Amino acid sequence: MSRSLTNEQRIFLVKQWWKAGNTRVVNEAFQAEFPDTKIPARQAIYQLAKKFDETGSFEDAPRSGRPRTVRTEENMERVSETFLLNPQTSKKRASIDLGISRRSLGRLMQDLNLKLYKPRLLQALNEDDPDRRMEFCEWVLDSFEEDSTVLDRILWTDEAIFKINGRVNRHNCVYWNDTNPHLVIEQELHVPQVIVWGGIWSNGVVGPYFFEGNVRSQKYFQMLKDNIIPQLEEHPSFQTMIWQQDGAPPHYGQIVRDYLDDTFLHWIGHRGTVEWPPRSPDLTPCDFSLWGILKDRAYAQNPCNINHLKSLIEQEFISINVDIELCQKISRSVADRCQMCINTEGKQFEHLR
């Protein structure tokens, strides 16, 4: 940056630095004096002042022979120590602190085999959850061995909360190391804006259905009876369909369980014909795939209000519904996930994928 400045601007910067010794004050004065020139970076100001102090000039000293490389043993040690002491520092911050360009820093980090790892969000488990997860996964794999169509017949359903800016941004959560630390975050998020119900199976997606206010058993039952089940009954595979839902309180109401018992030969859920293991979003396609796809696509279009957000969600449901191959791939991937869950003795496995 300093090379693109005029001598007048360089002299001004150095004088302001001598007077204030504070880059914020220097930047404010520079912007006021030269409003059409980009403010130099803090490190550029440091280096400019240091060079003038040491040489009495802003010009680079003449060089002889081959240009000096930054990939020296000393710089390797400096970079290694920086990320060893603070592995969560950003590349930009390290570049400024070390006085090394980001491109050169990238080469040094590559030589040191430093890689970028981002944390994964995992659902915390209770003490007896692994056993219940194992039981469910064994049922899935045993059923799949007996009937290879079983995963195509399960309709996976769930509700999700969508908000205007409702995403966990992990792009700024970084960890540099030469081996994967499997850094994870266990966190629950409850910032309600609009509650969306949806389902996915190998024949496409079902929904969306938007709940107004809190979801209660009666409201959930009315949705099933008046909106969802009549729609599903028109599908030729309805008689062999297996309904899945998690153990959320609205799903557990007696009126809901009685209705599912009367409607489906088999259904998965809390006190269903097949027991659903609690705290297992890594085993249901809605959580590990559908909601992520929908939120990525909807938020990429910058919804300006709830009605706009609802419209975007409806559009994306239509888009996914025509991609039957994607729906089949997502639904059938449950078998592999169940096997991974068994391999980890019912514990979390998403961070190991």
TrEMBL record:
Gene3D superfamilies: Ribonuclease H-like superfamily/Ribonuclease H. This is DUF4817 domain-containing protein. It comes from Adineta ricciae (Rotifer). GO terms for molecular function: nucleic acid binding. Residues 6-58 form the DUF4817 domain. It comes from the Eukaryota. Pfam families: DUF4817. InterPro entries: DUF4817, RNaseH_sf.
